[in-house]
């Protein structure tokens, strides 16, 4: 059942939509799902439930501000190049405090897709003691030409097709979600965005999954994580053939089995 948490962010109250999965599994690892640039609780569909049921995990799925049923982005607010840093360093800690997510020995696993994967990395870099591990699907650590081309095409589709109507199934304010994401990624200043220098601060185990056919990024993204996260307990890469930008939709069974094995192994260490 969807619930709401209230936090203070950017000097104003913000309401965050979230959903808990199997909270009765009190001794099980907690997986927190961080969605993509146009995602939300609803956009994940049944993947979090399937993964948690397969592994006997608990789950926490939420919509970042401006997405899903969370508070929309004010019309005059334009996100800066540091928008993912602010989500990782400000929103996520406040949300965790609001919903009572434990730290230390009971720290959660972060399961992040695309922008959500980047935010997960930034959180683990800033707060290494608060994360049990990371499962990253198609994360970004720097900006590539293929990413910009894909986001330019998304803008064209949003303006010329029924894309807004289709996205409205997942967001109360679809313009808030789309333009907040699209405008900053296409801002010329964002081309310099790069978080490789922050990877050495990640200490937890990392599973990085990417489709060989990812239309928003190349395998250089997860390979950069493998070479940069030098202090992580381990970095395991899964490069999936016949898979695009959303491994959990294109190859859900492979992702579930790989994630379950990885989390189970490192949770027992």
* Helicity range: 25-40%
Total count of strands: 8
Question: What would you call the structural class?
Answer: alpha/beta
Annotated CATH homologous superfamily: Alpha/Beta hydrolase fold, catalytic domain
Mean pLDDT: 97
Distance between the termini: 33 Å
Reading off the top of the CATH hierarchy, the class is best stated as: Alpha Beta
Q: What string, H for helix and E for strand, traces the elements in order?
A: EEEHEHEHEHHHEHEHH
Number of helices: 9
Description:
The protein is an alpha/beta fold and 269 residues long. It has one domain (2-267): 3-Layer(aba) Sandwich (Rossmann fold), CATH 3.40.50.1820. 37% of the residues lie in helices and 19% in strands. It has 9 helices and 8 strands. The chain has helices at residues 47-55, 83-99, 115-126, 145-160, 163-167, 174-185, 220-228, 247-250, 252-267, and strands at residues 2-9, 12-21, 30-34, 58-62, 109-113, 133-137, 206-211, 235-240. The protein has an 8-stranded mixed beta sheet with strand order 1-2-4-3-5-6-7-8, with helices on both faces. This is Alpha/beta hydrolase. Keywords: Hydrolase.
Write the layout of secondary structure elements.
Elements: E1 2-9, E2 12-21, E3 30-34, H1 47-55, E4 58-62, H2 83-99, E5 109-113, H3 115-126, E6 133-137, H4 145-160, H5 163-167, H6 174-185, E7 206-211, H7 220-228, E8 235-240, H8 247-250, H9 252-267
Parallel strand pairs: 3-4, 3-5, 5-6, 6-7, 7-8
Antiparallel strand pairs: 1-2, 2-4
